[in-house]
Amino acid sequence: MFFAACPDPAALLAWTERLPPAAKELLAAAYGFFTPAQAARPAGEPAAGWEKARVLRHVREYGYYANCKIGLQYAVEQGFDGVIFVGRGAEFTPEALQPLLEAAVFDGAAIAVGLASDTPPPSAAERRAIRLTNWILHRSWRELRSGWRYYSTAALRAIPFLLNTENEAFDAQLLIQGRALDLSATEVPLPGARVDRPALGDREAWRLFSPALHYRLHQLHLLRHGRWLVDFGERYTYKRSPFGSHQQILAAVPAGSRVLDLGCSQGLLADRLVKAGCHVAGVDQLPPERVRLPYDQYRQADLDDPALRLPYGREFDVVILADVIEHLKNREAVLALARRHLKPEGRMIISTGNIAIWFYRLSLLLGRFEYDARGILDDTHVRLFTRATFTRLLRQAGFEIVRVAVTTLPFEIIFQSHAENPLVRFLDRAYHRLARFWPELFAYQFVLEARIARLEHGESTAWPEAAGR
Q: What is the pTM of this model?
């Protein structure tokens, strides 16, 4: 455990002796303090049981919020499990520390916000800022700038906190970055804890609310900033909207089909295909342990390998490339691979994002073109498509396009809600009508269904006897 921006580690060491044995045991193994430049070092040696305690100080004063950033960065780099802020105006009481430790260690909270029992009531401007933040983010937070906070370093590694502002918005930005990772902030009552802090005026309250507004505009690509580009680890989310790519792909696969899922990622579609009676073979570069495995066969392989050969014949009713083609350098080779294993009467279903959608046109007009952790400008994409370039690629690869479908914006992800939410359903239907009316401008993705138009030299429509069965 690491204490960041702790103004008086000597006092903190002194009152940790009053902690209950269970809480003290959690800290005694290894912990550290980070303190501003002007704070005094603790007098003498650490008390018995605290030999591993260490105090770090700046050579000069950087300011409270810069101290917070430096402390967080140090904790991440040194491999601590978590960080507890003993922040501005927070008085040291053992009763305040124990609930935060319990939330972190026993409840597994990634973020915990302490609610001090003895805190001056917020100003009217701050109350408005909290209400507006909760309304725009669909949250019920009671506190946006607590003096007592806990962050796991696992969460901090995925958050670009060094890009946060060094003012009243810093704590709110951390909470919203956690929300962007789908992490809930646990609010923990702190009996007996006191935080003495100045009331916020209108300007400071606006700074407290503005991160929520900026984050929503970022999600809609109207404003972009690197602080909201959190690292999701697993990049892809199953979308339940009937107007999204996943549901449209599943709807296009006849029940009982033999399916080859190229670039299947974690296996987002496989469960549903198997439940529809399909026999599914998956191919991706992920190791098997990171893939859901309802597949009849799964092969770990790099689709960009020009020498890739699969031990199948021309035996699949459907070949799926769901949001894959934009990741590949050897696109033509992969399309030839799909054609090689597709039955003569079979169908290929392929999807990709529309780089010419309205908000990217607007971004370019404003001089912005920023890659992200996911979405059309996913930073692993090597080729971006419009409707014209996407359909041209398939025709040049020997396919005839039999159906073009369009998708809506991923509102369930934007609002971090679900497809049955009434607002999400309304936006889905309305936007899908708009996308069908003007696909080149409003479609988020294109989903194409294609069949073999011609065979390349040496290809046969027969099933090879060495089909690898």
A: 0.66
